[in-house]
Write a structure and sequence with these properties.
The chain contains 15 helices and 8 strands. The chain has 386 residues and is an alpha/beta fold. The strands form 2 sheets. A 6-stranded parallel β-sheet has the order 1-8-5-4-2-3, sandwiched between helices.
């Protein structure tokens, strides 16, 4: 096991009717900006719950943060924050709203030439406005981590940022919200969380026994609850396990003492930026090809994954590894998620070369857990995913 330091300061408030506790967590003198997306929180009752809980606070609102939070819209929100002297941000939404709020919390204190520098510099964010979250869509784990991803439509880029200042002060997780989520978004959440675990688990053995078991437990739980929650989103117990699995998949716990990959995400982000494909579905497109291309370096963990998660016990290490990849792709299919780029767009010719060039231009000359995947390797993996 590798050396590590671990600190996660986010307070989690989990369970039924917990939105009412907002007022006890936010400073009484805070001037709050409530950020949310397209307005679904007004039809499912969450908006009213938040407003009731914060009735004694000064609360302003900014709506319209889209999936894959868009830089130009966030810049409008930043102007609003500064002109209204906001002191506290509250994200009410899924990962996109929370990510957008993280960007704004950092941008409010940014002293550089442009807030986009926060994403291109890849420097950790050390200072940010305090913020919290009310989670409405389990998927990304953003409610309990210090990472965020922002899209810029004008340049067709999707870049990440992180830093110790980007942990929410607290997050409220009420599984009752799941009953109003469309099936497509639930499927996306399952695939997103599943792939988050794979990025931290399917690398190479480091004798981190507990981390492996944590990761395998999350994967097994997602597989077990997926048919239940897709069939009946009002199943509270299935929803609670789904929601907590998504949070645990990316709150930093399972990544301690082990190598992490994140090449699937790096490539997937490009597909979203270029084609507007749902983030989770880009991961399902890239993951099978990525693991097949890197079979030689990943086969030990892939075989372990096949045995422990999918109960595949027959064959050699390589045969079990390949069977585990096939089982993963089959799992995505059970969610109704297609796994080839050509199933989403006919305009994919040249995509591999374009993304490879982008990686080269950014200086991303070695990604993956060993830093060994070159832009040429990236092109080959994406071509395999056509």
């Amino acid at each position: 096991m590798n050396n590590f330091e671990y600190k996660n300061p986010t307070k989690i408030i989990f369970g039924q009717n917990k939105i009412a506790e907002l007022a006890t967590e936010i400073p009484t003198n805070a001037k709050i900006l409530m950020l949310y997306g397209g307005g679904s929180i007004k039809s499912n009752g969450i908006y009213d719950q938040v407003k009731t809980a914060l009735a004694d606070f000064e609360v302003l609102e900014f709506s319209g943060i889209p999936s894959n939070p868009e830089y130009s819209i966030l810049m409008n929100a930043l102007d609003f924050i500064k002109s209204n002297e906001i002191t506290y941000l509250l994200a009410v939404g899924g990962g996109s709203v929370i990510d957008g709020t993280k960007f704004l919390s950092a941008a409010a204190f940014h002293e550089g030439e442009t807030p986009w520098d926060l994403l291109t510099s890849r420097k950790p964010v050390l200072k940010a406005m305090p913020f919290a979250a009310v989670l409405t869509l389990p998927a990304t784990g953003s409610e309990m981590n210090s990472g965020a991803v922002v899209t810029r439509r004008e340049t067709k880029e999707k870049l990440a940022m992180s830093g110790p200042a980007l942990f929410p002060q607290f997050s409220i997780l009420d599984p009752q919200v799941i009953k109003s989520i469309p099936e497509r978004q639930i499927a996306n959440g399952l695939a997103d969380a599943f792939t988050h675990v794979l990025e931290q688990y399917l690398t190479y053995p480091t004798d981190a026994l507990l981390q492996d078991r944590f990761a395998e437990g999350i994967l097994q739980t997602l597989i077990e609850v997926s048919p239940k929650i897709l069939k009946d989103p009002s199943d509270y117990n299935a929803g609670a396990n789904f929601m907590w699995s998504c949070t645990m998949a990316l709150n930093g716990l399972i990544s301690q003492g082990v190598p992490s990959d994140w090449a699937v995400h790096a490539m997937g982000h490009e597909l979203t930026a270029l084609f507007g494909i749902d983030h989770a579905r880009t991961l399902a497109i890239i993951a099978p090809s990525h693991y097949k291309y890197n079979l030689a370096s990943k086969k030990e963990k892939l075989a372990q994954f096949a045995e422990r998660v999918f109960n595949i016990s027959e064959g050699s290490t390589e045969e079990k590894a390949l069977a585990g990849i096939d089982a993963t792709e089959a799992f995505f299919h059970t969610l109704g998620i297609k796994t080839k780029l050509s199933e989403y767009t006919e305009d994919y010719t040249g995509t591999a070369e374009l993304i490879s060039k982008r990686f080269t231009d950014r200086g991303w000359m070695g990604i993956g857990e060993r830093g060994s995947l070159s832009p040429t390797d990236v092109a080959k993996i994406i071509e395999m995913a056509y």
